[in-house]
Hints:
This protein is an alpha/beta fold. The chain is built from 19 helices and 17 strands. The protein has 3 domains: 52-283, Rossmann fold; 337-507, Nucleotidyltransferase, domain 5, CATH 3.30.420.10; 522-547, no CATH class.
Amino acid sequence: MNQKTKRKVESIFSKYPPEVIELGLAKLTQERREFAEQIDSRKTVRARVLQNFREFLKEYFGHYFSCEFGTQQNELIRDVHKFANKKNRSPIKLVRALSRGFGKSTILSLCAVLWLILRGDWSFVIMISSTLESAKDFLRKIVEEVEDNQKLIDDFPELNPAIDRKGQKVSWKDTDIVFRGGARIIAKGFLNAIRGKRNKQHRPSALIIDDPDEEKDVVSESTMRRKYRWFDRAAMKLGSGWGIDVLMSYTTIAPNCVGEVVFADDDKYPADEGWDKKKFKAIETDSNGKEYSTWEEGAPLAQLLKEREQDPITFAREKQNEVLAEVDQRFKGLIERYHFPPTDSWKGWRLTLGVDLSLGKNEKSDLSAIVGTARSPEGKIFEIFSDIQRRRPDKIADDLIIALTLFPWEVCGIEETGNQEHFHFLIRDRIKEYNKTHEDKILVPIVPVESGGDKEKRVTGALQPLVATKLLVLRDDSKILYKDLDEYPYFGKDGPDALEFSVRLQRTGTVSTRSKESIEAARAAKPKKLADIRGNRMKSMGIDPDLYPGK
């Protein structure tokens, strides 16, 4: 304290009696002590809630949760803790099918995101939903909470908007927010561009995928294919070489929704690569067979039973996360499978091959399918070959050549429409070239197969009776074809289309009880010259052909 200030303080103190000055100083000291204690107390609270997500929810978000948590909420709290301490673990990919109305979005897309950012585990989060508008809604809830929850801001001022050197907010809008502490969250819809996104030098550290589908999406096969491809090739390629955390929550609105596809495909999304997948139900059954609500405080059993009675289909999907067949899913649960091969010898069997074409010029084109069946002497049809993938016309031709050499096919039918006729010339040329250089010649007749009209009605009408009566069975290792047919028409349609071509070829042509060898012998014995044909015709009329030479 300099002399000038000291004289000013002494002048003020001289105006009051000593006892008043003493009381004033004591009060000031007490207030400073209380303020320091309050600061210490809030620091203690801050440290406590950053170690325990449940405490974080109770301390700052009690207005969202008016009753005790149930099974699903408690499980989610434990799940969120798995994402803590990112520096000391491998990336986590968590997929959860949760009951609608059980608070999944509030817990995961709001509270968990803020908690993990405040802990420093995540610095750059991308919020993804079915549409950009849906993703914006999730981000708006975060902004609203940060702006209106004074208790949260007092304890965590780093959640205030970041300010640049000009005194302006760096970014604080419904698609992109940057906090004072340096963390960033952006909102994106499925199929939006997300490659190359960064937060300064940081690549995305987490993807939050909440309700990735709308009802209108799942009825379009082409839309869902684009979404699967975008998820695999765009979303999952984000992050550093170390990997990116993924937290996906969804409700099973259809068998082909994104969440259900990821959940069901353990080959593409395996546990040994960090995928942790689980489903929850609103109603469970105990060991005595008695039903109970997994969140009795928030969704009483009586209420859930009433909902189930009013709309059992919607309840099964949105509350129980059960994959139910749509009304038009005629193959669901009917397909019988067998272990290949169905026989030790193809003698007496009829083998046919069907080809559904996709002649696109790039990898975004539809899938092409090559499917073969074998009909036993008893009339049962076995699928014996399937090759379904996205490929260009020249690759289809190469793969078809390989398929034609694998089995003793009697006929191969290739889809023919107005813009695909040239493929027939292409494959015939390839077969000619193959036969010039190989001893095992390809002698299978190639015929066009009409594919016009309503594809779904044609496939369902031709195959459903055979599948239902177990007269058409699939190989137990034909995973793609099985899934396409089981979920038809909500997954790929190309495999079932090629299967229908092959089955159609089984039903066409002359049917005979004679053996194949006797038929071929009879054909070989038929006259080849015109004179022989005329002679045989005259003999059938009772005329001696030698008496009428040249006739």
